[in-house]
Amino acid sequence: MITIDSDRPMASAATRLRGKRAAVIVFSYYPSDPRVMRSARAMCRAGMDVDLLCLQHVSGEPRRERIDGVEVFRVALKKRRAGKLAYAFQYLAFLARSFLWLSRRQLTRRYDVVHVHNMPDFLVFCAGVAKALGTRVMLDLHDPTPEVFMSVYGLARDHWLVRLLRFVEKLSIRFADAVLTPNITFRNLFVARSCPPDKIEIVMNSPLEEVFPLREPADKVPSVRNTRAEFVVMYHGTIVERHGLHTAVDAIAQLKGHIPGLRFHIYGEETAYLREQVLPLVARRGLQDRVHYFGQQDQKTVAQAVAGCDLGVVPNLRTVFTEINLPTRIFEYLALGKPVIVPETQGIRDYFNADNVLFFEAGKVESLAARIQWAFEHPEEVQTITRKGQEIYGRHLWHREESRLLNLVLKLAGNA
User: Fold this and answer.
1) Quick one: which of 40, 179, 253, 363 has the most CB atoms within 10 Å?
2) CATH number for the domain including 406?
3) Are residues 127 and 159 in the same domain?
4) d(CA 185, CA 202)
C-alpha cells in the first residue's frame, strides 16, 4: 500500500516530479470544476506534463487548448441533468471515448500517473491499458455515488441500483492504486465499505488562496446595526433542490418585516429547479425587490461578491448525502472573513462546532430565519465566531492540501 508524508515540503515533491507525465480524466468541464482545476494545475506547476480529457461545455469551445500549462482535450459530449438511464448512457459514452483516447496516447506518451475523477466511479477503468503497461492510477472520489443517487432520486439503501453502485465502487477502488476524497466522513464511509485505510488519502476542497485570500473580519463592527441599512445574505453554488434555496427564500420572507434592509443574492447556473420552484416562490412571497439572481459567474466574480456580502448561507436540506458532505462554500466565506450559516450535519461537525460557525437545523425555515436574525442582531458575537472559524480553515489552506496531493503523486510516479 502507498503511504505518504504529508509534511514534506511541496518544493521537494515539485523538484522530483519535474518531467513526469500525468493524464487527467473527468466527466465534467474544465476549468470550471474547481477540484479538477486545482489538482491539474498543481501537478503542472510541479513540473509535470499534464494532459486532461473532459467534456465540451458549449459547441464553440475549443476541442484542444492550453490553460495554465495544462493541455486540455474536449470530447463533444455535454453533461445533462436527466434520469438514471440518460446518465448511464452519458457515462458509458464518455468511458468509451476516454478509454480509446487514453489507450492511444499511452502508447506514445507513457504516462506515469493517471488521475481519474468520479462520477462515475467506473470511469477509472478507462485506464485499463495504461495500468497494464505500468502506469499508476489515482481515483479521486469527489462524492460517494450511491449516496448521491439516493438523494437525487429518492432511492432506499437496499434498492437494486444502490447495491449495484456500491459494488461498482468496490471494484473501482480495488482497481486503483490510490484513492483521494475530500473529507473525514467520506473517508470513513469508503473504508467501512471497501477501501483499505492505507489506500485512501484526504485532500480537501480548499479554495485557491489567490482567489479567496485569507482576510481578517472587519476590525470594528457596530454593537447595534442600523435596521434600514442594506444587509446582504448570499448563496453561491449548484442550484438543486437538496441545497434548499426555497428554504432560504421562505426564511427571507419571514424576516422582511424585522430587517427592512435585508437582501438575498444568489449565484449559480440556472436550473429547472430555479426556474420552476425558486423564482416562482420569490414572486409569490413578494420578494422581487429583495431576492436577486446573478447567474453563473467565474470564481473571481464570486469571490468579489462574497467580499461584499454580510452573511453567507448554506441552506441544505437533510438528505443522506448532505448529511455527510462538507460544502467548500464554508471555507470560501471564512477565507474572506464572512460569517456563514450551515446545517448541523456530520460532515460539517467533523471540522466545526457551534463556537466557530452558525448552525441551523437542516431544512427548517424557522431555524434558518432565527439564525439570520440572530446574526444581524449580534454583530460582535458573530465576529468572534467568524475569527474562530478562520482558525479551523487555516489548518486546511490549499497550499497544505496541495502538498498532500503532490506527495501522493510522487509516491505513485516513483513506482510507475
Assistant:
1) 40
2) 3.40.50.2000
3) yes
4) 10
According to DSSP, residue 49 is labeled E
Can you tell me whether residue 216 is helix, strand or coil? coil
Closest C-alpha among 375, 373, 316 to residue 346 = 316
Task: Tabulate helix, strand, coil % of the chain (nearest 5).
Answer: 45, 15, 40
For 206, the 3-state DSSP assignment is coil
At 152, which amino acid appears?
V
For residue 218, the 8-state DSSP code is: P
pLDDT (tens digit per residue) in 45-101: 999 999 999 999 888 889 999 999 999 999 998 777 767 788 889 999 999 999 999
Contact 249, 278 (CB under 8 A): yes
Angle between helices 379-394 and 328-335 (to 10 degrees): 110
Cβ atoms of 129 and 154 closer than 8 Å: no
Residues 110 and 138 both lie in one domain: yes
Tell whether 225 is covered by a domain: no
Q: Virtual CA dihedral for 220, 222, 223, 228, nearest 10 degrees?
A: -160
Residues whose CB falls within 8 Å of the CB of residue 285, separated by 6 or more in sequence, listed in order:
249, 250, 252, 253
Count the Cβ atoms, other than its own, within 10 Å of residue 212.
25
Q: How far apart are CA 203 and CA 400, in angstroms?
A: 9
User: 274 burial class (0-12, 13-18, 19+ CB within 10 angstroms)?
Assistant: buried
Residues 6+ apart with CB under 8 A from 173: 121, 139, 141, 179, 190, 194, 195, 199
202: its cell numbers: 484526504
DSSP secondary structure of 370-384: HHHHHHHH-HHHHHH
Q: Is the pLDDT of residue 194 over 70?
A: yes
Cell digits for 345? 450535519
Classify strands 21-25 and 64-67 as parallel, antiparallel or unpaired: unpaired
Whole-structure pTM value? 0.91
Rounded to the nearest 10°, the torsion over CA 332, 333, 337, 338 is 170
Cell triple for residue 339? 460569517
Structural domain for 337, as ranges: 231-394
Name the 3-class secondary structure at 164.
helix
